[in-house]
Design brief:
CATH class: Alpha Beta
Oligomer: single chain
Strand content: 15-25%
Largest sheet: 6 strands, mixed
Distance between the termini: 52 Å
Radius of gyration: 18 Å
Strand order of the largest sheet: 1-2-3-4-5-6
Number of domains: 1
CATH architecture: 4-Layer Sandwich
Structural class: alpha/beta
Number of helices: 11
CATH superfamily: Ribonuclease Z/Hydroxyacylglutathione hydrolase-like
Length: 297
């Protein structure tokens, strides 16, 4: 029986945009990712549909602290759960005020609709993980693998020959191509490609993407991701050199991405919308412009 259950959080009433993963162990259920607090109702429903109560979750493993991955972690801490996180994300889970202030500047009045609130997690319920450190829950081992590039505080969680890749494994929806989510402030193409190489050295049969679901052909998937990451960064570079205002880049960038998706068989407007919801063009423009700025500073 498959002990990994994919829970669709139906972000913004769209299917297959953000997932959380319920892991059944001999010591009870665990979560990898929580999604944002705005989808806590869907997450609770998903947990219950698999025969558990949300309060049964006593271990939550976060890939990184971005709100679409970690925004509801505090709720599980209030029920007694331990939250496992990268050391560079620890302080923001313990005191999310800076994280939330930054997000509010970006999203403004849409904060509640998109992400909901975030509360502090007490230090005694946060566990800072070292690279390749293992946590055992019942009959299941969770291995933390530092995988920067998308974020400096990124962990991919390995369970046997399965990897929960957070965002370092990219965004792939409904059988379409994989694309790199590139929001500010931490995008680093070289670090990301090094993390891809690191993952390729692991003995994996499958990966699970937060956006969205299971990938069986790990090597070809990651090769496509690496190539597209280079392609997108190189597309942005001339705009950086010419000091093009970001607001003038977003629409052409989105058109380029949609043309790529359509060329690779994603023609349904619903599926194109899922990609944009999971990986907004405006965020990738901002992140890649910042990447080039830091490269040239």
């Amino acid at each position: 029986m498959n002990h990994i259950k994919v829970i669709d959080l139906e972000f913004l009433q769209q299917k297959e945009v953000i997932a959380a993963f319920l892991i059944e162990t001999s010591a009870g259920p665990c979560l990898v990712e929580t999604g944002p607090y705005s989808t806590i109702g869907q997450l609770k429903d998903g947990i219950q549909k698999h025969g558990y109560q949300p309060e049964d979750i006593q271990h939550v493993f976060l890939s990184h602290i971005h709100l679409d991955h970690a925004g509801a972690a505090w709720w599980f801490a209030k029920q007694g759960a331990t939250i496992y996180v990268h050391p560079k994300g620890y302080k923001h889970m313990n005191d999310p005020s800076k994280l939330m202030d930054s997000a509010t500047r970006i999203y403004g009045s849409m904060m509640d609709t998109l992400w909901g609130r975030m509360e502090a997690i007490p230090s005694e319920q946060l566990r800072s993980m070292e690279d390749e450190e293992t946590i055992t829950v019942g009959d299941t081992q969770f291995e933390a693998w530092y995988t920067p590039g998308h974020a400096v505080h990124h962990i991919a969680w390995k369970l046997g020959k399965t990897l929960f890749s957070g965002d370092v494994g990219g965004v792939k929806i409904n059988g379409g191509p994989v694309v790199p989510p590139c929001p500010p402030p931490d995008i680093n193409v070289e670090d990301w490609k090094a993390s891809i190489s690191k993952i390729l050295q692991l003995d994996l049969d499958e990966m699970y993407l937060t956006h969205y679901g299971k990938v069986d052909s790990v090597a070809s998937h990651l090769e496509d991701l690496s190539n597209r990451l280079d392609s997108w960064a190189n597309w942005i570079h001339p705009h950086f050199k010419n000091d093009t205002p970001q607001q003038n880049i977003i629409m052409p960038f989105q058109e380029m991405v949609q043309a790529e998706l359509i060329e690779n068989g994603v023609t349904d407007p619903i599926h194109l919308g899922q990609y944009e919801a999971a990986n907004p063009s405006s965020m990738s423009v901002a992140g890649l412009m910042r990447y080039w700025e830091k490269r040239n500073s």
